Amino acid sequence: MDYVIHELKTHFSGRTFEKKREDLLFTTLETGVLVHALKHLRDVLGFRHLVLITAVDWIEEDQFQLTYLLRNHTQKTDVGLRVFIPRQNPVMESVHTLWETAATYQRELHEMFGIDFPGSPRVNKPFILEGWQDIPPYRRDFDTKKYSEETYFPRPGRKTHDPETYMKQKLYPDGTES
Q1: pLDDT per position as a tens digit, 79-136
Q2: At 99, is the secondary structure helix, strand, or coil?
Q3: How far apart are CA 116 and CA 97, in angstroms?
Q4: 48-51: long-range pairs with CB below 8 Å, 24+
Q5: Using CB atoms within 10 A as the burial measure, which of 32, 47, 69, 104 is most buried?
């Protein structure tokens, strides 16, 4: 994986590198170089398989983290490229021209997080939330409990728990958190 680190440092100013395993590396890049780095990894270094694109809502930092995971089947190695975009008006360049499957991931991220990928095929068409009118449900400011209470009225005999309190009781029954 040292050759990948060298390439990303040399050509794309990779800032941090985390070797999670001998065959798995993550780095964080500026958004402006992401597409070039993905293309370089695919065309020069053999990372031809886009495994996934995923997002994390870092609401405290007012940004989303996008992670693009690539696989080199010959070397049996994976590289994850991370970029951060603002939560307000989140837009990222589409990579559907590099991998057709990217359009599906981008469509899902658009629907679940509200991240826009201009030019991505069918990105504005409903993916699984047909008729959804609320804020995107994977954003951390989406109130799942409130939505459930408003959408699914209480059923007789069923007890409802506050999720945060309930999980603390399950994880720390003696009341002490580590």
Answers
A1: 999 999 999 999 999 999 999 999 999 999 999 999 999 999 999 998 889 889 899 9
A2: coil
A3: 16
A4: 48/72, 48/73, 49/73, 50/95, 50/98, 50/99, 50/101, 50/102, 50/105, 51/78
A5: 47
Output the CA torsion sign for 67, 70, 75, 77.
positive
Task: For residue 146, give every residue at least 6 positions away whose Cβ sits within 8 Å of its Cβ, in sequence order, or none.
Answer: none
Burial of 40 (0-12, 13-18, 19+ CB in 10 A): middle
Q: Report pTM.
A: 0.85
Contacts of 129 (CB under 8 A, 6+ apart): 111, 112, 137
Residues 63/115, Cβ–Cβ less than 8 Å: no
* Contact partners, residue 123, CB within 8 Å, separation at least 6: 94, 103, 106, 107, 110, 116, 117
| Cβ neighbours around 91 below 10 Å, total | 12
